[in-house]
Design a protein that fits this description.
The chain has helices at 3-7, 55-58, 89-95, 118-121, 140-146, 157-178, 237-244, 254-258, 287-294; strands at 9-12, 19-24, 27-32, 51-52, 61-65, 70-74, 79-88, 127-130, 152-155, 180-188, 196-197, 201-202, 206-213, 218-225, 231-235, 246-247, 283-284. The protein is of the alpha+beta class and 297 residues long. It has one domain: 3-Layer(aba) Sandwich (Extracellular Endonuclease, Chain A), CATH 3.40.570. Strands 1-5-6-7-10-13-14-15-17 form a nine-stranded mixed sheet, with helices on both faces. Strands 2-3 form a two-stranded antiparallel ribbon. A two-stranded antiparallel sheet has the order 4-16. α3 (89-95) packs across α6 (157-178). The chain is globular, with a radius of gyration of 18 Å. 47% of the residues are buried. Residues 65-255 form the DNA/RNA non-specific endonuclease/pyrophosphatase/phosphodiesterase domain. Its cofactor is Mg(2+). GO terms for molecular function: endonuclease activity; hydrolase activity; metal ion binding; nucleic acid binding.
Length: 297
């Protein structure tokens, strides 16, 4: 185990009880919320990590603290439930000078039975999709850590390389403009027919990226299906929390959570590859959100 691995904080998520009724993984039941102190406080606004509002989702969760982002990892899905970052102008200036290393690796700090392995993704047809992007990482250590599979979900290749890459670029540009943003990125697992890679790693049905500007008190989230599509929605934090069953910002005022901030459209990102002509160009729609809302009714 190298020094950076030794320095990580990995802790199983304990909890305290608070009854609520929300739907996560497609099941609407009353379960306790799981809230606990975090060791990754530097990556969260006000030092407060999200609260999980479903015992089923909270099962086998472990917090993994990296140098530039924090992960809540699920041993059930073998993916992150979320990855959190504090993006600043200075951090992104430093990240511009970093070269992508592409050193994907399993996370040695997690138990073998709970973590994804490289072989799980082989010939799966899915990309290893970063939640905290490698292009956000300000130094070599953070760049290396971002390629941990604890920061990855199985992602549709066209989605990952075009729409999602465009969303990531737009958030970086916004952070450069605003100077200080908190970002939480993660998967949703909705519906009765969920796929698993190698019978182990669960494939998300949707992906989200929450952006919060604490100085201007503005917050919203990008939401997209995990498919070869250019369609996405911008939703309020309050709506996303209902869908995910997670209180992403426990200290955020309710009025901020319920107010829609029109986030910028994804930046064009062709990456030198020809776009699939069947894939629509980026367009903001309500279909994604409307579909997910039906699961709560």
């Amino acid at each position: 185990m190298n020094r950076s691995q030794q320095d990580r904080v990995v802790r199983k998520r304990p909890g305290k009880v608070r009854l609520q009724c929300l739907s996560v993984l497609g099941i609407a039941l009353a379960f306790p919320a799981w809230a606990a102190p975090t060791q990754c406080g530097a990556h969260y606004w006000a030092g407060a990590a999200p609260d999980i509002v479903n015992a089923r989702v909270a099962s086998q969760t472990r917090e993994v603290c990296f140098s530039a982002f924090g992960v809540m990892h699920s041993g059930v899905t073998r993916t992150p439930l979320w990855s959190a970052e504090h993006l600043t102008r200075e951090r992104l200036d430093a990240a511009r000078d970093m070269s992508r290393v592409n050193n994907f690796h399993s996370e040695p700090a997690l138990p073998l039975t709970e973590r994804a392995e490289l072989k799980d993704y082989v010939r799966s047809g899915y990309d290893r999709g970063h939640m905290a992007p490698s292009a956000d990482m300000p130094d070599a250590r953070a760049q290396q850590e971002s390629f941990s599979l604890s920061n990855m979900v199985p992602q549709n290749p066209e989605n990952n390389r075009y729409l999602w890459a465009g969303i990531e670029s737009s958030v970086r540009y916004l952070a450069q403009q605003r100077g200080d943003l908190y970002v939480i990125t993660g998967p949703l697992f909705k519906g009765a027919q969920l796929t698993q890679l190698n019978g182990r790693v669960m494939v998300p049905s949707q992906l989200y990226k929450i952006v919060y500007d604490p100085r201007r008190q503005q917050a919203s989230a990008y939401l997209a299906t995990n498919e070869a599509t250019g369609d996405y929605a911008v939703v309020t934090v309050a709506d996303l929390e209902k869908l995910a069953g997670i209180d992403f910002f426990p200290e955020m005022p309710a009025r901020v959570k319920s107010t829609l901030w029109r986030l910028p459209a994804p930046k064009a990102h062709e990456g030198g590859r020809k776009r699939d002509p069947k894939m629509p160009s980026y367009r903001e729609i309500n279909t994604v959100l409307d579909f997910l809302r039906t699961l709560l009714n």
